[in-house]
Design goal:
One of its GO terms (molecular function) is DNA binding. By secondary structure, the chain is α/β, with parallel strands linked by helices. It is 50% helix and 6% strand. It contains 14 helices and six strands. Strands 1, 2, 3, 4, 5 and 6 form a six-stranded mixed sheet that branches. Helix 1 packs across helix 3 and helix 9 runs parallel beside helix 11. It is elongated. The two termini are 44 Å apart.
Length: 324
């Protein structure tokens, strides 16, 4: 791409002089090697105001003042969840100045504040990688008998009116169902209250005989982090649960080394949604069938997969493990 240059005043004078002598714009263009459109605009401007000097401008004036820019920055830092539209409305309400969302982006970008961008996986910090690496080194030599004492529960919402929770313990699978309260909005399906209901009404009851030997693992999802959930786990699994805020630390942001994340739910969903679901009864039946098809040999292979992933995690120095 060629760089645009401006005509100096001397060359502008030559162009106007030759045109006033009767030469055509095409002739002047050929003689000086300047585009005819440039010469036409220069001649038109000379006829309009008798001046051909270049006009200098400071550009479009800024919509916001320095004080308003500082107000935007302060508001954005005070509430990190504010959108550009929210900040624009708050500025208009406080100062009477109305700006677009793009202006908000530019002003905040000038001080290093940018909107969150969706990514394929949550970026890991140096601390995250260090903790994940340390955890992999500690557990890489665990035996199948040691892993058999760890329970990996989870509670993803496979449908708006159903929560399916799977229990993986050694070579056993125990499917059980939760429910959605009629008055609860769908977006709160996996809230801490619902997760606690699932634990107290299903998990704890089904594990009464196994609890003295079982360690519960949670991956630190928002429903797992609730105070009521952690309090209940401390009562039922005193000193024997792993997770965020638990007595046994779990490496942050590590679904890639959780069996129910890297194997079980992918297997179940692939089978459940292979064909279009007609109704909720059909969905429940498919989930039950998919879980029932998980046999002991498949679970045994899952424990080998954990060892393989921990080995890769150690080689990658704590980075995400993306193995298919």
């Amino acid at each position: 791409m060629t760089q645009r240059t401006h005509l100096d005043d001397f060359l502008r004078g030559i162009i106007i002089g030759r045109l006033e002598c009767g030469r055509t714009k095409l002739k002047v263009s050929d003689e000086l090697g300047i585009a005819q459109s440039v010469i036409s605009r220069l001649w038109q401007r000379f006829q309009d105001d008798g001046n051909v000097s270049r006009r200098y401008s400071t550009g479009r004036p800024r919509v916001t003042t320095p004080n308003e820019d500082r107000y935007l920055a302060f508001t954005a830092k005070r509430n990190r969840r504010s959108t550009a539209s929210d900040l624009s409305r708050q500025l208009s309400s406080a100062t009477g100045t109305t700006i677009s969302r793009q202006t908000v982006y530019r002003r905040l970008g000038q001080i290093g504040l940018y909107a969150h961008r969706p990514v394929r996986c949550v970026p890991l910090t140096a601390t995250h990688c260090r903790l994940r690496l340390a955890w992999s080194r500690e557990h890489i030599l665990w035996t199948p008998q040691q892993w058999a004492c760890v329970m990996f529960p989870t509670s993803p919402a496979l449908a708006c009116s159903l929560i399916l929770a799977g229990l993986s313990y050694g070579d056993h699978q125990a499917p059980f169902y939760g429910w959605q309260r009629p008055s609860s909005p769908c977006k709160h399906l996996c809230a801490s209250v619902v997760h606690l209901d699932m634990l107290e009404n299903f998990v704890f009851l089904q594990l009464e005989e196994l609890q003295p030997h079982v360690f519960l693992q949670q991956d630190g999802a928002p429903p797992h982090w609730g105070i009521i959930v952690r309090s209940s786990l401390n009562d039922h699994f005193t000193g024997r649960w792993t997770g965020r805020g638990g007595p046994i630390p779990w490496p942050p942001r590590s679904p890639d080394i959780t069996p129910l994340s890297f194997f079980h739910w992918g297997f179940v969903k692939d089978n459940v949604y292979r064909r279009r679901v007609s109704n909720i009864d059909d969905l429940k039946a498919r989930i039950t069938t998919a879980i029932a098809s998980v046999v002991a040999d498949m679970l045994a292979g899952t424990w080998c997969e954990i060892e393989y992933r921990l080995d890769i995690l150690r080689a990658m120095k704590g980075a995400h493990v993306d193995v298919h």
